[in-house]
């Protein structure tokens, strides 16, 4: 399945969902464009967005704290810290910037190690 097929399937599902609600304009049989249907559901649920943001924040911070603990205890500390940053980056732009910066530095360090190993 190509990316275009996936987008088409998603739009078809959104159109079906919009038609089943019956909240559309009268002239088109009650259908609501997919973009409007998705946007309307986001506007209707600010409490859900806030709960999601809080859950992501708690889970991300927990991963980072666990990762810091695993730096001195057995376990993949660096991986947990990066996972926590990645999770926080889904909701918070500052965390996304930090995650991208750390990712870039780790990638550069990895390439330096690989060059030394091959030389």
From TrEMBL:
Signal peptide: none annotated. Residues 1-41 are annotated as: Disordered. Residues 31-40 have a biased composition (Low complexity). Keywords: Membrane, Transmembrane, Transmembrane helix. The chain crosses the membrane at residues 50-72, 78-95. The keyword Membrane applies. This is TIGR02611 family protein. It comes from Actinomadura rubrobrunea.
């Amino acid at each position: 399945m190509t990316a275009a097929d996936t987008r088409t399937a998603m739009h078809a599902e959104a159109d079906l969902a919009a038609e089943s609600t019956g909240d559309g304009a009268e002239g088109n049989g009650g259908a609501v464009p997919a973009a409007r249907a998705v946007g309307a559901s986001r506007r209707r649920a600010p409490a859900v967005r806030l709960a999601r943001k809080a859950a992501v924040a708690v889970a991300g911070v927990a991963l980072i704290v666990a990762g810091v603990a695993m730096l001195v205890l057995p376990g993949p500390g660096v991986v947990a810290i990066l996972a926590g940053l990645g999770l926080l980056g889904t909701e918070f732009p500052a965390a996304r910037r930090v995650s991208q910066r750390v990712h870039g530095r780790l990638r550069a360090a990895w390439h330096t190690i690989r060059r030394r190993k091959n030389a």
